[in-house]
Amino acid sequence: MKKLIVYTSVTGFTKQYVQWIAEATGADVIAMGELSKVDVSSYPVIVYGGGIKAGNIRGLKKFKRSVDLTHRKKVIVFATGGAPNTDEIMKKIIKQNFTHEEAATFDFFYFQSGLNYERMKKIDRCLMAIYRKVLGLKKGKNATEKGTSQALMHSYDYSDKDHILPLVTMINEA
Ligand SMILES: Cc1cc2nc3c(=O)[nH]c(=O)nc-3n(C[C@H](O)[C@H](O)[C@H](O)COP(=O)(O)O)c2cc1C
């Protein structure tokens, strides 16, 4: 069955996950900006991946506007982000990015990645600096906020190929 992965990646984390998934599934891959180059309608299985920015999955709105997702065998969305993979984080991302109907019909995965200050856009580096400052000044931080505050100080990479296994199984069994 033909499968396509469409992705948006600014600092490379999502692209790395896409490469791992493509190797394991034989899926075709296209960056969101090149979507017009493929006949998307010929893919029964379609995957979208993007990094998270302030809770929003980058490029997902545009992807949903650009691609007719009805009558697909499977629609899978995955997000990469600096935060650890917890039920709470998953629920927040789903609530912020999907309608009830989408949440019921799409499959969603979240993979922890990291932060790469060197590859970030200048505007994003500035946003991170502001966020660091605000969080640093916050009094009575809870454990999660303390951890985030520390994590934001430097680039880091917790990407792990093993995270993709459930998604790969789902694609291969579709
Ligand atoms: C401006 C900015 C905002 C971010 N916001 C979040 C966030 O809300 N939650 C999160 O888990 N990670 C957040 N991150 C981390 C990115 O989601 C993470 O680095 C992601 O893997 C980037 O994907 P990419 O390298 O494919 O662009 C943020 C990063 C930047 C630069």
- The value of Rg in angstroms is 17 Å
Strand content: 15-25%
CATH-defined fold name of the largest domain: Rossmann fold
Query: Roughly how much helix do the residues carry, as a percent range?
Result: 40-55%
Describe this entry's structure for a reader:
- The structure is a single chain.
- By secondary structure, the chain is α/β, with parallel strands linked by helices.
- It has 2 domains: 3-116 and 157-173, Flavodoxin domain (Rossmann fold); 117-154.
- The chain has 7 helices and 8 strands, in the order E-H-E-E-E-H-E-H-H-E-E-H-H-E-H.
- Helix 1 (13-25) links the parallel strand 1 and strand 2.
- The radius of gyration is 17 Å and the shape is elongated.
- The protein has helices at residues 13-25, 60-66, 87-97, 100-105, 122-137, 143-151, 165-173; strands spanning 3-8, 28-31, 45-53, 56-57, 74-81, 107-112, 114-115, 156-157.
- Strands 1, 2, 3, 4, 5 and 6 form a 6-stranded mixed sheet that branches. Strands 7-8 form a two-stranded antiparallel sheet.
- Bound molecules: flavin mononucleotide.
- Flavin mononucleotide is lined by residues 9-15, 51-55, 80-83, 113-115, 120, 124, 127-128.
